[in-house]
Amino acid sequence: MLQTRFTKLVGVQHPIVQGGMQWVGRAELVAAVANAGALGFITALTQPTPEDLTREIARCRDLTDKPFGVNLTILPAIKPPPYAEYRAAIIESGIKVVETAGNKPQEHVDEFRKHGVKVVHKCTSVRHALSAERMGVDAISIDGFECAGHPGEDDTPGLILIPAAANKIKIPMIASGGFADARGLVAALALGADGINMGTRFMATKESPIHQLIKEKIVANDERETELIFRTMRNTSRVAKNAVSTKVVAMEKEGAKFEDIRELVAGARGKMVYATGNSDEGIWSAGQVQGLIQDIPSCAELVSRIVREAEAIIRARLDGMIVHPAAQAAE
After folding, report:
1. What is the CATH number of domain 13-210?
2. Are 139 and 195 in contact (CB under 8 A)?
3. Which tens digit of pLDDT belongs to each residue from 241-258?
4. What φ, ψ does residue 228 adopt, rounded to 5°?
């Protein structure tokens, strides 16, 4: 068993996290991750109202007695969701760990911590991680450029970002972006992280609440099958390469503004991808890690395999590379 500062902080068995994913982070997936001994997060804003979130948390509790959390992502919007009401639903439901993401969550951090809720803040740079640490969060999830969703604007890959953050961050840190297997977990621990976050990898599991054809598409895709949209708007998002995302990138190169592509990138269209299995229906998030995903296991199979193989890499492969002077002399 691999025990880290993060597993002790949140009370889970394995240093593996399934972070918030819009339209994907639902009770059936989160409970399966929790039952596997890892930490899953329900995505608050996937639920249409705070009342729906309360019901989804209760549904998850019916499926597991293990710890799980809720993701609350704060994004700029013309008509923002009622964040304070979602926050209240999380607190009143007795959730003990929350993943925050997005713009300066100070008021949410203060309110969660006042009620004894641990806060893991997701960020894409060392400076934002340090800012979140000063804000009083309990742990950081740091996203490298490889990740699905928003990788920030610095284009710093995990191999640099994770140790750079580990050099400066004192609280536990989860590495995110590009993780799918035991090799990634061992690498993240070696780079100074206390565990890994996996999004795309958990999408391709039996319990993931998305269409089977999309799971099979993730398996079929390689590491080149993503696009970076909204680059020209400095709101970069890594999504699966398809007819829609390729068109958006081409339009941006020709100077398109958000109003010109609004209909193409609408969230309602992306939601339909997961419902219908048509991967060209709209924009949907996926990382470069697709190139490392070759099957669709249950969450229990996936987590146990990663932990088992990680222990084998550490004990056999890495330990076997250390040659002690006495043994070398005897040869």
Report:
1. 3.20.20.70
2. no
3. 999 999 999 999 999 999
4. -105, 105
